[in-house]
Design a protein that fits this description.
By secondary structure, the protein is α+β, with helices and mostly antiparallel strands. The chain has one domain: Glutaredoxin (3-Layer(aba) Sandwich), CATH 3.40.30.10. Strands 4-3-2-1-5-6 form a 6-stranded mixed β-sheet, with helices on both faces. It is globular, with a radius of gyration of 15 Å.
Amino acid sequence: MLLLGVLYVAGGADMDFDLEAFQWKNRIILVFAPSSNSETYKGQMQEFEGQEDGVLDRDLIILELFEDWETRQGHTSLSERVAPRLRRQFEVGEGEFLLILIGKDGTVKLRSNHLVAASKIFGLIDSMPMRQEEMRRKQNSIH
């Protein structure tokens, strides 16, 4: 699994997660699945394996949320309150696989009930005006 991003709340296994705290700093991928044994979930997470540089370069945080209320960010478990709250907020049905990409501006950029290739997610992000500006700034700092 990927260990991505840094959580801002201390508290061990009872960490909470507030999407608004990441606005203008990070893009967030929410991966909702019935369980960690879901084939679509496993396939989705395999898409991110070996993509750490691309994930970090795009300021991505990936959250895995399951119906048993388990929520993980990489190897870090979050509060059991997180999954039900986000499931309600994004209207995720029982037994449903859902991937949601949230931009730095806090809006949903992609919502898919199917596995999405990491290259497609990266391409979508790279086409966004904010990301284009980030890439220009990075390129200019190299020269």
